[in-house]
């Protein structure tokens, strides 16, 4: 059988806004490019994706996204190398995970071709928006929402798949203080924590605000049962180094299967770092901090890349992490970003040229 | 200090759609009235609410509702009595719960006056949309969504509060078969289950679809820990009658504090029915069904009122409930709806005239 080649439609913006943007002072995710990709699901099929001018979305007041939170998203980045070529990092992993999330949230899956061809058409149209300054990139936000209507708690019959992009600087500035959470939880066993479902994130806002008020930037989520195990750091997977061993928890239905996490695991093995994927208890981390064997903690995710944690709070005490010369965090961050920006060999085959 | 009287703005629709609606064949939540109430939160304040023609909502692609599920809702009904007067049922309970949900979801709370005056102005404008046929009512959907923008997982700084209404018939037709769920969960300890947060509902769609495929209309949610306790029936609270005792679980951070539930509890006490509010195990329900002491199960909620359950599935077996002459479900449903429709005395002071 022949593969039909999908023809993405392109309607260009009349005027570019790019002249208004200060590319040397980019914050994260606040400025948007000239175009977006839109693909509608109607009558049981995904229609032809279309690149169009970035513009407001109009929805019925009874659209199910507004009432039942039927929405999912992804987060990716496009990088420019020194020769001006555009690169993505493991984009098919995002495409697959989008469909894993879709499945759990009763949203129709999007064919790979629609995702990849739509994304490439958008990136080609907005190519000049990909920043080149150190540490910056084009943050890409694919998302799906229920546009179908009705005040009935059941899946919608119409959806929108959209990709919007924001030239962005770094997510965090400097090191991060985190609080190990013992009251609030991010996700349930048998719940939707492993999906990038919108509602998972709004549920974190209030506990994170409480942590912010106490001087912490992020919450470390623990299991909702006994708050015994360390699970995620805000919207990042978490890594812990005890002595020379790098440890991260296994994924589960409560934990997002992060692409940065699994890439870091492979790079660490390649670097000869001893790696363990196993459950991490809060008490062992506190113990290791007390006896001096806790060397590093860092978060890993597309937006924040590798984010070293400078201290953690637990039950009214703060535990500082040592400042290391040649930390795993800095080595691993350099290896992964060198691949992403096409500054080094990519023995894993992760880089994807647009 | 004086109470400022809020003046709700009203912009009437040029033409009514009411002639197109068949009021004798109303489904639930699919037809919408001519107007809606809109109130915007900007620069730290809720602006003046406005009744305006029912119309699409336009939002930026980066509005946080689309990405992080920052949204909440309520569900109420307006009833017409034989004299044509309009009634609400305990509306201040919905107003308070909206703010409880808002607080948990990091959404600014809405002053009582904005809610009540906005709601009344809308109902007066769309008064002729309140159906009068037996069992039908005007379903009212207040909701709040994050309209503020940015690809950063943090609370929005702009929100919309909207009320839309749908003349509706009954939610379920006939009795309901339910499945006791042991794999998927609705909410976590320390999570947002007690809030009417959008994401809680989309998370139920897929498990409910799986149950539908097996011939059940609804899922009975159990705790996410050991699936040992019975918690809710879809978007209803659940009641169980063993011998002559009516039992419902206590509310918790996983269970919505339903207004129908607490009204039913008061009416049952008033009826002299022995009532227990305590945790209910799955095994005692199965046991009671086997030994013939399980007399009734029913769901309770604004949309479905009191919904008798005809049988429940558990681990590949189905357990039928007996058909009773003078069931608690029918007695309690009659008492509550007689109050709602102003057909009987309201000794509790629940009815609210618009
Ligand atoms: C909850 C959560 N954990 C972890 C991650 C990291 O995943 P990835 O490395 O694929 O970006 C993300 C964000 O993307 C997330 O939302
Ligand atoms: C999860 C859940 N439980 C119970 C209820 C019943 O609450 P109420 O009686 O206030 O409508 C609802 C719906 O409103 C609900 O969404």
TrEMBL record, chains A, B:
Its EC number is 2.6.1.42. GO terms for biological process: isoleucine biosynthetic process; L-leucine biosynthetic process; L-valine biosynthetic process. Acts on leucine, isoleucine and valine. It catalyses: L-leucine + 2-oxoglutarate = 4-methyl-2-oxopentanoate + L-glutamate; L-isoleucine + 2-oxoglutarate = (S)-3-methyl-2-oxopentanoate + L-glutamate; L-valine + 2-oxoglutarate = 3-methyl-2-oxobutanoate + L-glutamate. The modification N6-(pyridoxal phosphate)lysine is found at residue 196. Transmembrane segments: none annotated. GO terms for molecular function: L-isoleucine-2-oxoglutarate transaminase activity; L-leucine-2-oxoglutarate transaminase activity; L-valine-2-oxoglutarate transaminase activity. Belongs to the class-IV pyridoxal-phosphate-dependent aminotransferase family. Gene3D superfamilies: 3.30.470.10, D-amino Acid Aminotransferase, subunit A, domain 2 (3.20.10.10). It comes from the Bacteria. Its cofactor is pyridoxal 5'-phosphate. Keywords: Amino-acid biosynthesis, Aminotransferase, Branched-chain amino acid biosynthesis, Pyridoxal phosphate, Transferase. Pathway: Amino-acid biosynthesis; L-valine biosynthesis; L-valine from pyruvate: step 4/4; Amino-acid biosynthesis; L-isoleucine biosynthesis; L-isoleucine from 2-oxobutanoate: step 4/4; Amino-acid biosynthesis; L-leucine biosynthesis; L-leucine from 3-methyl-2-oxobutanoate: step 4/4. This is Branched-chain-amino-acid aminotransferase. It holds the Pfam family Aminotran_4.
